[in-house]
Design a protein that fits this description.
single chain; 239 residues; mainly beta; eleven-stranded antiparallel sheet; two-stranded antiparallel ribbon; 15 strands; globular
């Protein structure tokens, strides 16, 4: 059994040449494994963008992106023992971007940020001492300065009753510019009726600074991918 609760809010406002856009996504899911319930989905994602039109195609934009989770996370070993790997605000990622948005393609916004700051918080004593999630052992946060690109495709009907949403977040620190951190999310929604849909979601994450336990027993940088199929009931207050 797999059960997930998902709450999404989008809000946008445009006044003259100024546009404000906010997004909040909250997800929490569990799966039954034998007689136990294990967490399989847990995220808090807050995004805010402020833009001012400077030409017909380009905006000057500032973007704030914050991500963490609700509860502790574990990996399960072959002997059913657990390794503690995460918690609320451990890690939490805050990204502040300043750059230019291209918005002439319908439903697609592309933000190019020559200057982008990234702060990783690790507000947990055990994980801090372990030096988890790219933070130096004993430290509670790590700050980086670099450049990035954020592509955001709003929900678009690609075929009758089939809708596609995608976001790609890229970051390269100035100290190691060739090492690009990637967070790519995709969602395909198959609409059954106004109140019910079937969703296929995927997320791909790669960060050279984060050590991941591999299948061969080693640990180091690795691509992580998660796929999920779910039945969704919709309450839409936008109309």
């Amino acid at each position: 059994m797999n059960a997930t609760t998902e709450f999404k809010v989008w809000a946008s406002k445009k006044k003259g040449h100024v546009e404000l856009e906010n997004r909040m996504e909250l997800q929490y899911g569990v799966i039954r494994s034998g007689q136990k319930l294990e967490k399989n989905n847990d995220q808090i994602w807050l995004v805010s963008r402020q833009s001012r039109q400077i030409t017909n195609s380009w905006q000057l934009s500032a973007l704030e992106d914050f991500r963490t989770q609700f509860q502790p996370g574990f990996t399960i070993n072959d002997d059913n023992s657990k390794n503690y790997i995460s918690n609320f605000m451990a890690p939490a990622n805050l990204e502040l971007s300043l750059g230019f948005s291209y918005n002439r393609i319908k439903n697609l916004n592309v933000l190019v940020s020559p200057i982008k700051g990234k702060v990783t918080f690790l507000l947990d004593d055990q994980l801090s001492q372990d030096g988890a999630h790219g933070v130096e052992a004993g430290k509670k946060f790590r700050s980086q300065l670099g450049s990035g690109i954020f592509l955001d495709l709003k929900e678009t009907e690609i075929l009758p009753n089939i809708f596609y949403t995608s976001s790609v977040n890229l970051f390269a620190g100035f100290q190691a510019f060739s090492q690009v951190a990637v967070d790519w999310r995709n969602d395909i929604r198959f609409r059954v009726n106004r109140y019910m849909s079937t969703n296929f979601s995927s997320r791909l994450v790669y960060d050279h600074d984060v050590a991941v336990s591999r299948d061969d027993g080693t640990s180091g940088p690795a691509m992580q991918m998660r796929n999920e199929i779910s039945l969704v009931f919709i309450l839409d207050y936008s109309k």
